[in-house]
Amino acid sequence: xxxxxxxxxxxxxxxxxLLALSGWFIMATAAAGIAGIGIxxxxxxxxxxxxxxxxxxxxxxxxxxxLTHDATLRAVSGLRVxxxxxxxxxxxxxxxxxxxxxxxNRITADTEALDGALLRLVLPALAxxxxxxxxxxxxxxxxxxxxxxxxxxxxxxLPTTVFLVGxxxxxxxxxxxxxxxxxxxxxxxxxxxxxxDLVVFGQLPATVxxxxxxxYRAAGARARLDRIDRVTGMLLDLVSAFxxxxxxxxxxxxxxxxxxxxxxxxxxxxxxLALAEAVAPVRRALAEIGRMTQAARRIAPAMxxxxxxxTTHPDLAADRGLVxxxxxxxxxxxxxxxxxxxxxxxxxxxVLQGASGSGKSTLLLMAIGGLAATRxxxxxxxxxxxxxxxxxxxxxAVLVTQRAALISGTVAANLRLAAPAASDDALWAxxxxxxxxxxxxxxxxxxxLLGPRGAGLSGGEARRLVLARAVxxxxxxxxxxxxxxxVDEATAHRVMSGLRQACPDAAFLVAAHRAxxxxxxxxxxxxxxx
Length: 530
Prior knowledge:
The chain is 65% helix and 9% strand. It is of the alpha/beta class.
């Protein structure tokens, strides 16, 4: 980025030097011709310098584009990875509430906005400011301090004023345009993914209308930005005209006083014309300053790691179990359930029993560090789970929630999310453990192609596929939230037995609602409202 900025300054400086030298060359040649000494005037050195500046400017512009765009794309790539890592540190409840379409649209739009902030605001502003200051100082030395002062004040003060005033006017329509565009994109994704349900319930026309309305709103805000852009462009052209006229009038006065020659005066005038390029990016930046600012405000908090997450690896006890002592969780200042105490040792199965909404799923989340207990103490493998890095937790413990998380792809691809190096035999063994192998063999085996979110499997089959994926992790602690939902009673018994046979040394903590999930329990813990 620094090299790209350097080349940006060189490009602008060469442009100013090229135009100023050309103006001086034309006027000096004309003056020599009028004086009758044109045959003695050396035209070769200025001509060579003009060619050098023209070719050098082209080469520098190419290098500047390559370097700045490469650096920006690398920065944006790292930014996207950082945003996704930041998502991993959010509380589990917050992640459950995310809408995939809107979140991906927001990440994409925000990183694109900051991409523009670098290429169209930060770099051009720095390069333009450096070039204007340098050119003003050079003209002050070569031509006159008065002309240099006109250049400096005119091109630093006036465009800055235009930008500060313009960005206040453009901020609101820029924000509206970006917000409406993101809403429209999300609605398009929802429209496509949910079109079957929308048709069945007669909501397709209304959804299409709302989607179109979002894009109309974005277009209206963009039209207002275009008007601001045209006015800004006119004001910048006027700034360039005023500065050029100012340098011309100052040059005329100095020539009449005999302080400088006509050719020298031309340097200031043509430098003023050339420096218009240095302030041109102000016009485009104004149209995007609103979305750039909002993107930065959203991204900055998302990049921060959760304060509970530690970057150090605590010393985990040899004991692979889980202990909870008088834990509870408060919602709006009220405890969700009576304090719970339990311990799960390797090879044991402990079942949490209670009515729906009593807090069983919340206890599972607290056990793995997805939520912080309001009161009490949780010890996972001898340490506070909130202080154990996420990657270390996922190496040793697996949580299977009520929502089956499957991807579009083959059965093997879904299983290998948990164990990328697993052999086909290992995959079949995991499927046997959850009583799904025979069902899949009849339908294409490991190569069976699933649709988005596991479309193509029944609810019970999708549930068992997720359980098979958990088995492949060979966890020390397996947390199961109603694992046999959607499965008949006989199959549920076989699934629970298969899980224990596949993971004989693992500690099981199960949120159960049916007899098949409780029959093999070593202990049953009642979870009730406070």
